[in-house]
Design goal:
By secondary structure, the chain is mainly α. The protein has 2 domains: about 35 residues; about 60 residues, DNA polymerase, domain 1, CATH 1.10.150. It is built from 4 helices and 2 strands; from the N terminus they run H-E-H-H-H-E.
């Protein structure tokens, strides 16, 4: 009985010590996700390739070429018109891409 109470107290102390670390890690993940947002109408090919999952430098160059040829993107779905960019790539990166039209 005493041993069980002691183990519960040790476990509770460990939880109290780890809780701030877990909260800080969650806050850091949220900040990282926000900082990973990319204005697809302003970014260069290297930045696009680094920021988007499944988009290498060649696809990123295609995105920039499309933008230069047709003007700024007006919707995320317009990325589907770019050679090599499919629906899965758009969905995977939906939370990272921002469309800003100035």
């Amino acid at each position: 009985m005493v041993r069980s109470t002691f183990l519960q107290a040790v476990f509770a102390a460990c939880l109290m010590m780890c809780a701030p670390v877990l909260v800080a890690a969650q806050a850091e993940d949220s900040a990282t996700q926000q900082s990973m947002q990319l204005d697809i109408n302003k970014a260069d090919a290297a930045t696009i390739a680094a920021a988007l999952d499944g988009v290498g430098i060649v696809k990123a160059q295609e995105i920039v070429a499309y933008r230069e040829m047709f003007g700024n993107f007006t919707s995320l779905e317009e990325l589907l018109e770019v050679k090599g960019i499919g629906a899965a790539t758009v969905e995977r990166n939906r939370q990272r891409i921002v469309i800003v039209n100035n």
